[in-house]
Design a protein that fits this description.
149 residues; mainly beta; 2 domains; four-stranded antiparallel β-sheet; 2 helices; 15% helix
Amino acid sequence: MIRSVIVSASLITALGLGAPVLAQSIGTPNQTSAQQDPEAPELTSEPGSVVVLRGLDKVTARTRDFEAPIGEAVQFGALSITVQYCRKRPPEEPPEVFAFVEVEDRRTDGFGVQAEGERMFSGWMFASNPALNALEHPVYDVWVIDCRS
């Protein structure tokens, strides 16, 4: 239970929603929802349509930057990466880029026929702190660089 509150608090902080939403997520009584609270700060940025990711192949020690359109699967080595959402804070706020990323390890059956992949990662990645929610894969590392409209 405590871990989920900590993750929720870091996500709320990253989204810039502030204390009213945090109090509601912890379960403080007599709090209204963030949409109904007139004092809740408004998000000042728009969601992006393309995420810039950086991938590292640990075997060859090569990195490659690539773009992933929202909702479309892109391939990096044996990984299939789908970004569901991204947002970049505006310049007047502290810099932060975050994205919800799903990563599957593509597999073959030994004859080159695509088999069902294994989900390696599903969660939020933050550009300012890539180690917070890192992809754990023996060959590849992937992290968020930027979010563009």
